[in-house]
Amino acid sequence: MTQDTALSILKTGANIFLTGEPGSGKTHTVNRYVAYLKERGVKVAITASTGIAATHIGGVTIHSWSGIGIKKELSPSDISKITKYASKKIKKASVLIIDEISMLNSNTLDLVNMVTKAARHSESAFGGMQIVLVGDFFQLPPVSRFG
Prior knowledge:
Elements: H1 3-10, E1 16-18, H2 26-39, E2 44-48, H3 51-57, E3 60-61, H4 62-66, H5 76-92, E4 95-99, H6 106-119, E5 130-134
Parallel strand pairs: 1-5, 2-3, 2-4, 4-5
């Protein structure tokens, strides 16, 4: 698939997993999509699984953006507190981009889903936002304390 084809699919609003080997143009394609969204006044949350990756794309970590921080699980009380803190930015975003998705474990993605659903008062996955997951599972595994 070409970068232009990938960009065309992104523009449909579908949830996407954008993958490819290093140098294939994933970041270039995402940057083009972000520019397209911003030209149209669409709010986009640009995040990544690590701080270094976030700085490379001009975003923040998914942990910071969603308000989950370093938590491994969330109680109903945690969700209530987090949504009070992060609700405004979560509600504003129509598109959530998560770069280096291969470094994010599935539990963290579930927590982000829980928080976005609660903040947006929606049972749709991620509160109904378009989700763009970017990465290469052949490159980097999830970060883990215990190998």
